[in-house]
Design brief:
Elements: H1 2-47, E1 55-63, E2 66-74, E3 81-89, E4 97-106
Protein name: Type II secretion system protein I
Subcellular location: Cell inner membrane; Membrane
Keywords: Cell inner membrane, Cell membrane, Membrane, Methylation
């Protein structure tokens, strides 16, 4: 009887563990895809024209059978660096962020290849 109760408790614990793994897998998948969207937008931004205007730029892109919304905030340039804030969300109002990145772009490293935004 004791062995049967130990076995049933072990089975319940294993099922709960697997349920948590499955739940966390979808969260990790969302974070990973949001990171890819952010990386793609940052790469496009780095290829953009050197005369980008400070302010918000936003858009949407399809990846992984989902529509991802992104927004880029170009902060005013300092002497050598320009701060860039990038947010990615599955919601158009950005109520829940899947990824949020702040990076810096060297003013002298900006290529002059045409305006992408």
């Amino acid at each position: 009887m004791i062995a049967l109760s130990i076995l049933s408790l072990t089975a319940v614990m294993i099922l709960e563990f697997k349920e948590n793994q499955i739940r966390n897998l979808s969260i990790l998948e969302e974070k990973m895809q949001a990171g890819w969207v952010a990386d793609n937008q940052l790469a496009l931004l780095k290829l953009a024209h050197s005369e980008q205007k400070p302010g918000p730029h936003n858009g949407k892109v399809m990846m992984g059978k989902r529509i991802w919304y992104w927004r880029v905030q170009l902060l005013p340039e300092e002497r050598l660096l320009q701060a860039i804030d990038l947010d990615v969300s599955l919601h158009p109002d950005f109520s829940v962020l899947s990824a949020s990145i702040r990076t810096y772009l060297s003013v002298s490293d900006k290529p002059n290849r045409g305006n992408l935004y």
